[in-house]
Amino acid sequence: MTLIILAFLTIPIQMLGYATTCTQGDSGSALTGSVISGMLLFAMAVFLLRRGASNELGAISLVVTAILLVGTLALTFSIWLGTIRYGTPCGADFEFYALELPGRAIILFSYLALPTLNVVLCLTLIVRKLSVQKSHT
């Protein structure tokens, strides 16, 4: 249950990236959302690694968490795609205001890399659970 709560908490925090209108390329809300959600997503990865190693997590919570994180990736695709393509989460119209490399890295790490890592961890643990169940039958 803790895992699902963590996944639910990341959604509104990552939506902070859409809190401003990108006036003059202001991407501060995306940076704020990425820093806060990054800590939460990192904690989720540690939780998955620790609990997954001891096989304490239920398959249903892993599936729900993976679905929530894939949904979060889909909801925030314009932020991370804009950062990859134009250097700013604000998109092509604000390419002139592209972030420096550290800002881009923080946004991409929190909006793309950490959610993807957690989805992969969830799927790996699900496959491991299924293979353990099959070997016992």
Helix and strand arrangement:
Elements (H helix, E strand, L loop, with lengths): L1 H13 L13 H26 L5 H17 L1 H10 L14 H36 L1
Helix pairs in contact: 1-2, 1-3, 2-5, 3-5, 4-5
Written account of the structure:
By secondary structure, the chain is mainly α. It has 5 helices and no strands. The chain has helices at residues 2-14, 28-53, 59-75, 77-86, 101-136. It is elongated and about 60 Å long.
Features of the shown structure:
137 residues; mainly alpha; 5 helices
Mean pLDDT: 88
User: Which residues form runs of ≥5 with pLDDT under 50?
Assistant: none
What is the element string, with H for helices and E for strands?
Answer: HHHHH
| End-to-end Cα distance | 27 Å
Number of strands: 0
What percent of residues adopt helix (DSSP H or I)? over 70%
Multimer state: single chain
What percent strand? under 5%
Shape: elongated
Q: Major β-sheet, in short?
A: none
CA radius of gyration is 17 Å
- The number of helical segments is 5
Structural class: mainly alpha
